[in-house]
Design a protein that fits this description.
The chain is an alpha/beta fold and 362 residues long. The chain has helices spanning 29-41, 57-71, 87-101, 117-125, 128-137, 152-159, 182-188, 203-206, 222-231, 246-257, 264-278, 297-310, 313-324, 339-343, 350-361, and strands spanning 3-5, 12-14, 16-19, 46-48, 77-82, 106-114, 141-148, 166-170, 192-196, 238-242. The protein contains 15 helices and ten strands. Strands 3-4-5-6-7-8-9-10 form an eight-stranded parallel barrel, surrounded by five helices. The protein binds iron/sulfur cluster (SF4) (2 copies).
Length: 362
């Protein structure tokens, strides 16, 4: 396992982290515990969950897993999050989290999912920072962190306020261009940096030929290569992988254990290739869901990915018809209210894409 400093905190964290958002059997407690033990035995010491992953069931599974890690004296750091911003709501939230997780403190506590800078200003005005600082003074949390789906310039602006010790955001071989500006502030303030969604919610493993350019070593698979692309970034402390099964744990540990350093020149070449090929991919995060016209936006945007990946509308329409079983005419219901674009983590021109789909179906 490779270990990296989490900013200035003095904590040394594993280059791969355990993400608790993709358990295939979250209610099978023994399996979840086994996965966490397997990860810790392989050297993973960063474990991340959230109060709304599978309802509260991911945190509950983590509670059982962490108890077993302590019993076996396997070291770990715990990360979780809250959407709340006023002190009394944060207190209620963290009380429940500490109970579910079976711990007396959280190492990395995140102000969760800043969607835009106005949202950040609103949460600050509600007192979120003061509340977090009190929790830290009381020893209930160790470090004040933030997670965000902003684009890189905005994350940079957020972090330049220098009130956080670390940051979590989505970053991978296909969407790095929208986020890499954040590294300016991370370097300037020596912050911890955790990246999530390194495999694009399955997009990379499901298109191994298209992403083969990320490979830098003999006989490596595209998943290992996509993770190693992240390890090559010196600013990234932890690459968080949402593990579904024990096999996923083993694969990620093998990726880090077999990592051979990638030169800056090679990294730049991979980025140049990806920028030319994959700008504007939808990651399937579903933050845009909830359209007032009930348009299934994530499915339509997934289909649009096929056009970006294969360069033709036929792939898009086939995906809609055979994979999703959705008539392309659904896209015509859009009234351009803008709600989905406001929520989109990748800042995509969703309404423009819907129009293209309507035209393509013509
Ligand atoms: S802009 Fe269109 S697709 Fe997006 S939420 Fe509004 S109606 Fe739905
Ligand atoms: S359109 Fe944007 S918000 Fe919706 S699933 Fe894709 S990346 Fe996520």
């Amino acid at each position: 396992m490779i270990y990296r400093n989490y900013g200035k905190t003095g904590k040394s964290v594993s280059a791969v982290g355990f993400g608790g958002m993709r358990f295939e059997s979250v209610d099978d407690r023994d399996t979840c515990v086994d996965m966490m033990v397997r990860a810790a035995e392989g050297g993973i010491n960063y474990f991340d969950t959230a109060p709304k992953y599978f309802g509260t069931r991911s945190e509950e599974a983590f509670g059982a897993g962490l108890a077993e890690l302590r019993r076996r004296q396997l070291p770990y750091y715990l990360s979780t999050k809250t959407f709340e911003s006023d002190e009394s709501a944060i207190r209620r939230e963290i009380d429940g989290q500490l109970t579910r997780l079976g711990v007396d403190h959280i190492d990395f506590y995140h102000i969760w999912c800043i969607t835009n800078l106005d949202n950040w200003r609103e949460r600050k005005a509600n007192g979120v920072l003061d509340a977090f600082r009190k929790l830290k003074d009381e020893g209930l949390i160790r470090h004040i962190c933030v997670s965000s789906h902003l684009i890189g310039d905005q994350i940079n602006e957020l972090l330049m306020e220098n009130v956080f010790e670390g940051v979590l955001f989505g970053y991978s071989a296909y969407n790095f261009a929208t986020r890499q500006k954040a590294f300016d502030a991370i370097r300037a303030h020596d912050l911890g940096c955790v990246v999530m969604n390194p495999l694009g919610g399955g997009l990379i493993p499901n298109n191994p030929d298209l992403f083969s350019f990320v490979k830098t070593q003999e006989n490596e698979g595209v998943v290992e290569a996509a993770l190693r692309f992240l390890f090559a970034h010196r600013e990234i402390s932890v690459s968080l992988v949402g593990f579904g099964t024990s096999d996923h744990v083993d694969q990620a540990i093998a990726a880090v254990d077999g990592y051979q350093p990638i030169s800056e020149a090679k990294l730049d070449a991979i980025k140049a290739r990806a920028s030319a090929s994959f700008d504007g991919i939808c990651t399937g995060c579903q933050y845009c869901d909830g359209c007032p016209e009930e348009i299934p936006i994530p499915k339509l945007m997934d289909a649009y990915n096929q056009k970006l990946l294969h360069g033709d509308y036929e792939s898009l329409l086939n995906r809609l018809k055979w994979h999703w079983n959705i008539p392309a005419e659904e896209a015509a219901k859009c009234i351009e209210c803008g709600q989905c674009e406001e929520a989109c983590t990748q800042h995509l021109d969703i309404t423009g894409r819907l129009k293209e789909i309507v035209q393509a179906a013509g």
